[in-house]
Amino acid sequence: MSAMNIGIIGTGAIAPAYMEGLAHWTQDVKVIACADLNTDRAAAFAEQYGITSMRVDNLLASDDVEIIINLTIPAVHAKVTMQILEAGKHAYCEKPLAITLPDAEAVMQLAGEKNLRVGCAPDTFLGSGGQTARRAIDEGRIGRPVSATAFFEGPGPDSWHPNPFFYYTEGGGPMLDMGPYYVTALVNLLGSVASVAAMTGTGFDNRVAGHEGVRGQPIPVSVTTHAAGVLGFGSGAIATVITSFDVWQDTLPHIEIHGTKGSLSVPDPNRFDGEVKVWTPETGGWEPVASQHRSDIQRGIGVADMAHSIRAGEPHRASGDLALHVLEIMLAFDVSAQQEQHLAIQHGVEQPAALSPNL
After folding, report:
1. Residue 273 has pLDDT above 80, yes or no
2. DSSP 76
3. Out of 178, 217, 275, 314, which could bridge 152 as a Cys pair, Cβ 3.0 to 4.6 Å?
4. To the nearest 10°, the Cα dihedral for 158, 163, 166, 172?
5. Which one, of 119, 59, 117, lies nearest residue 94 by Cα?
6. Which among 247, 224, 241 is positioned nearest to 190, based on CA atoms?
7. Within a 13 Å sphere around the CA of 238, how many CA atoms are in the beta-carbon half?
8. Which segments of 92-209 does DSSP mark as H helices, in order?
9. Residue 353 to residue 333: CA distance in whole angstroms
10. Which phi and psi (to 5°) does residue 156 adopt?
11. pTM: predicted TM-score of the whole model, two decimal places
């Protein structure tokens, strides 16, 4: 099968990571063009990577491009993805799929009407860390999973990010920013979530930017910055999840899965690699699980998997359906807290298929 031609809309900070990652999957994808509202930035990016710079409307209209990767800011993810679909092209979006549930639902409805694919980051769960952990569970190394913990805690991007302001407006906050990595990892390991119960809050009403370009500027906070909740999975497993920008430092593990026969330590879901460890009563200690997966996987494997699956007529893994499920879960934290009740998740999803060894 020939490689599918790829275009990119948005040539900001994350775009180079996609170019580097996609270079490992030339049998499935070939990036040929890019576009950005900042045409000078797009031109410089195109020259750096040997591709063609276009205006956004010309890229959307190009007959040569089959998939467009949407690397715009979260607030316009849904709008740009729908423009891609209206242009008759498959779309792959940076996380999150949208910042409201109705917008995400509209994206998926349009994709269905157009018979087009939607993919969405994160695809980190397809790396060696996430897939090795998945294999350990599928092989029964810890028995039936009964509980899990997932923690992301830090002080926020105030001190180091050149534009920290959007992290504290609608579509920002630790849940929509970092939650996709953690919740997606849990769905990869445990399957679909059935319900959410949570409490959320805001630790600081105002913050101060620290990057040299914006140092000293106030950062008004209009989103919750600490979310703590419980996910009830369809399998019966229960996970405790915390995401926070209100913590100076912590020592909590990223993700642990606990089963009837042992426990599983899962590496940082914001990375593709990392050591997976299992503890069982028989060993009485944490032992590493050998990986059977490629160590060079980076951002872009979700795009490559989608392109391969389109050609093969198979479901892709980092799918729009998965992203819609994860978004509903994340948004449910604030709604559950406001309503002081458990919320049933309406958009279920099939657990993504595990990758074969050496992939």
Report:
1. yes
2. G
3. 178
4. -50
5. 119
6. 241
7. 4
8. 101-114, 128-138, 173-190
9. 27
10. 85, 175
11. 0.96
